[in-house]
């Protein structure tokens, strides 16, 4: 179990603005919004270049972060928040979309490559390491020959939206388990 004095620094990735709200690429923001509701807080601008909610999730002191930059430039606000809240890169939790997982699948892991995800690439560069925790939310592969970059910037389909709330809730449960029980225990529960 995590140290009682530790802070869970939870980053939801997405693109700012109403144009991107329902995009697959914004799943990190959608899960962060659910976690903010659970913590009883509202996102507010922070000097790190992100919107932040400080509160408690399942009894654990938590800071939720949504970078105000575009996805590909997420690293600077994430590193700024980690520095401000004195959280080591290894203790940062990043929620992001994952093309290589079926829609709604949640997988948790530490480190690894970025798999072409420019938001993760930016974070790895700014933190100086790839050794942070990732909460991977499956959005599936694009149909046919559609460019993956175009696919993630499209809204969830009508069929996906019918189940999306359930999967967001499940992903938020996994993040809470990560923050309170640690990676291995959370993996055992959600994989």
UniProtKB/TrEMBL annotation:
| Name of a matching Pfam family | Pept_tRNA_hydro
One GO CC annotation: cytoplasm
Keywords, sorted A to Z:
Cytoplasm, Hydrolase, RNA-binding, tRNA-binding
Q: Which CDD domains match?
A: PTH
Under the heading Gene3D superfamilies, the entry gives: Peptidyl-tRNA hydrolase
Give the positions of the site Discriminates between blocked and unblocked aminoacyl-tRNA.
Answer: 15
Q: Name one GO molecular function term.
A: tRNA binding
Report the domain of life of the source organism. Bacteria
Q: Which reaction does it catalyse?
A: an N-acyl-L-alpha-aminoacyl-tRNA + H2O = an N-acyl-L-amino acid + a tRNA + H(+)
The positions annotated for binding tRNA are 20, 70, 72, 118
Q: Where is the signal peptide?
A: none
Q: What does this chain do?
A: Catalyzes the release of premature peptidyl moieties from peptidyl-tRNA molecules trapped in stalled 50S ribosomal subunits, and thus maintains levels of free tRNAs and 50S ribosomes. Hydrolyzes ribosome-free peptidyl-tRNAs (with 1 or more amino acids incorporated), which drop off the ribosome during protein synthesis, or as a result of ribosome stalling.
- Return the similarity comment: Belongs to the PTH family.
Per its record, how is this protein called by name?
Peptidyl-tRNA hydrolase
């Amino acid at each position: 179990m995590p140290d009682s004095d530790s802070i869970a620094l939870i980053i939801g990735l997405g693109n700012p603005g109403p144009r991107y709200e329902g995009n697959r690429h914004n799943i990190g923001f959608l899960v962060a919004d659910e976690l903010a509701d659970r913590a009883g807080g509202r996102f507010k601008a922070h000097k790190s270049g992100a919107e932040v909610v400080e509160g408690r999730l399942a009894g654990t002191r938590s800071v939720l972060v949504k970078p105000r930059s575009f996805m590909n430039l997420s690293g600077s606000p994430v590193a700024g928040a980690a520095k401000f809240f004195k959280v080591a890169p290894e203790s940062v939790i990043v929620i992001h979309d994952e093309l290589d997982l079926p829609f709604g699948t949640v997988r948790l892991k530490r480190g690894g490559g970025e798999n072409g995800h420019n938001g993760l690439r930016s974070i790895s560069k700014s933190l100086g390491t790839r050794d942070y925790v990732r909460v991977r939310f499956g959005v599936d592969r694009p149909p046919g020959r559609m460019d993956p970059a175009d696919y993630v910037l499209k809204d969830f389909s009508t069929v996906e939206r019918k189940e999306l709330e359930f999967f967001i809730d499940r992903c938020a449960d996994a993040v809470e388990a990560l923050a309170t029980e640690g990676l291995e225990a959370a993996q055992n529960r959600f994989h």
